[in-house]
Amino acid sequence: MTLAVLRIATGLLFVWAFFDKAFGLGYATPEKNAWFAGGSPTKGFLGNVHVGPFESTFHAWAGAWWADTLFMLGLLAVGVALVLGIGLRVAAGAGTLMMLLMWAAEWPPAQHNSLGEATRSTNPLIDYHIIYALVLIVVATAAGGAVWSLAHWWAGLPFVRSNPWLK
Q1: Alpha helix (H) residue ranges in the chain
Q2: How far is 10 from 126, CA to CA, in rounded Å?
Q3: Of 98, 103, 99, 43, which is closest to residue 68 (Cα–Cα)?
Q4: Residue 118's beta-bridge partner residues?
Q5: Which of 7, 62, 100, 156 could form a disulfide with 47 if both were Cys (CB 3.0 to 4.6 A apart)?
Q6: For residue 100, what are the CA distances in angstroms to 95, 96, 111?
């Protein structure tokens, strides 16, 4: 039951991030910057990366239609999969990749960014992105989808039975 609560709570983090960025609910994203209002969910974050070996790569990706679309679909798909307890292996893989890319964008090992400012990194290796990635992996591998979920129904679907990696 504890893993089910962790799975659902983590899923709701992803779903909330999707809705806030899609509709500009005024928390992390103002209404004028909402994705559905023509804003870019990646432009502000990736465009302001000033640290790490991938700085120029993230700047190139910032605001690209494909980066916005993949990011938003990833947030929604990972969140829904976790809340429903279905496709946890794929959700854990996709979510972990998202978290590792966000970790790389913040580059916690650096004490100063390329502008010479302090990064305020509190730990050079383990930050909340790594913790979220570990939670995703634990939930997907420790039967975290068995309680309060549609996992049994999902696993019984013919395309999932013939492709067990979709569990």
Answers
A1: 2-23, 43-47, 55-61, 65-84, 88-106, 128-141, 151-156, 158-161
A2: 18
A3: 43
A4: 112
A5: 62
A6: 9, 6, 19
Radius of gyration of the chain (CA): 17
Amino acid at 8: I
Kindly report the number of other CB atoms within 10 A of residue 50's CB atom. 17
* Amino acid (one-letter) located at 99: M
Block residue for tokens 């979920």: 149
User: What is the separation of C-alpha 123 from the centre of its chain, rounded to a whole number of angstroms?
Assistant: 20
Output the pTM of the full model: 0.93
Name the E strands within the chain.
none
Tally of CB atoms within 10 A around 24: 19
Cβ–Cβ under 8 Å, residues 151 and 145? yes
Give residue-wise pLDDT tens across range 63-112: 999 999 999 999 999 999 999 999 999 999 999 999 999 999 999 999 99
